[in-house]
Amino acid sequence: MYIDIHCHLDVEQFEKDLGQVIKNAEQADLKVILTNGTNSDSNKAALKLAKKYDLVRAALGIYPEHAHELDVDQEIEFIKKHKDEIVAIGEVGLDGIDKTNFEEQKKCFQKMIDLAKELDLPVVIHSRKAESVCIEMLQASKIKKVLLHCFCGKKKLIERAAKLGYYFSVPTNVVRAENFQSLIRNVPITQLFAETDAPWLSPFKEKRNEPAFVVESYKEIAKQKKMDPEEVKKSIFMNWQKLF
Ligand SMILES: [Zn+2]
To answer: How far apart are the CA of 8 and the centre of ligand 1, in A?
Structure first.
């Protein structure tokens, strides 16, 4: 009963063989795959995929880099209309790599936090190179149900977010990324999830990532926590039931 808590099944890398990818996930004993929307088209695609495959659930959001190029309020209306078909708001947040439209990113992010609160859904956060601003905004909003995807903040910030009760998901490239290995050690198992961020962040070099590979994150969590792999599976499944 594995869960891939964050990936992108609607992208072109899966266009040719998504059916097979889902089969691989079933065979690997995945029970849930949470695909995340990033803009209008991607949100529509996520809803379709969730309808088509039992295993797939949808999160709808606006990726920070798209915040300035679409009508945010219109997208929010779309999400509200489909609130019963989704389990989270995501992927949303801030990306500080290109700060050209950072103010627009912040405005959009705040609206998405407010939306998640209004709908009482967890919010899935992207926070690359903007980790502290993200935590500031989340804390100020008093939102409780937060999942920090691929979080690269420093140890102090990780501890602060963990104290706030936020959840973290460990991506599959953890097999070679020391920062995520130490994140596992610094966050209680009751606040951890595993993700692939497929098709990206593969655990295997030169190979496209897919939900079935989430098993590699689980293995690393068991190793870093010195836990029995079965216990890790059970704990993460309980986290799923609690947060979603
Ligand atoms: Zn993502």
So the answer is: 6
Distance (Å, whole) CA 205 – CA 67:
31
Question: pLDDT tens, 11-21?
Answer: 999 999 999 99
Instruction: Report the separation in Å between the CA atom of 171 and the middle of ligand 1, taken as the mean of its atom positions.
Output: 10
CA of 37 to the centre of ligand 1 (A): 9
> Ligand 1 centre and the CA of 12: distance in Å?
14
Domain count for the chain = 1
Contacts of 134 (CB under 8 A, 6+ apart): 93, 94, 109, 125, 127, 148
Domain with 152 in it: 2-243
pLDDT digits (tens, 9 = 90+) for 112-151: 999 999 999 999 999 999 999 999 999 999 999 999 999 9
pLDDT at 55: 97
| Residue showing tokens 């627009």 | 104
Give the Å distance between the CA of 186 and the centre of ligand 1: 22
Tell me the CATH number at 144: 3.20.20.140
pTM of the full predicted structure? 0.97
Neighbours of 118 (CB within 10 A): 12
Whole-number pLDDT of residue 161: 98
Distance (angstroms) between ligand 1 centre and the Cα of 209 equals 12
Residue 45's pLDDT is 98
Q: How far is the CA of 150 from the centre of ligand 1 (A)?
A: 8
Tokens of 211: 């939900």
Task: Measure 215 CA to ligand 1 centroid, in angstroms.
Answer: 18
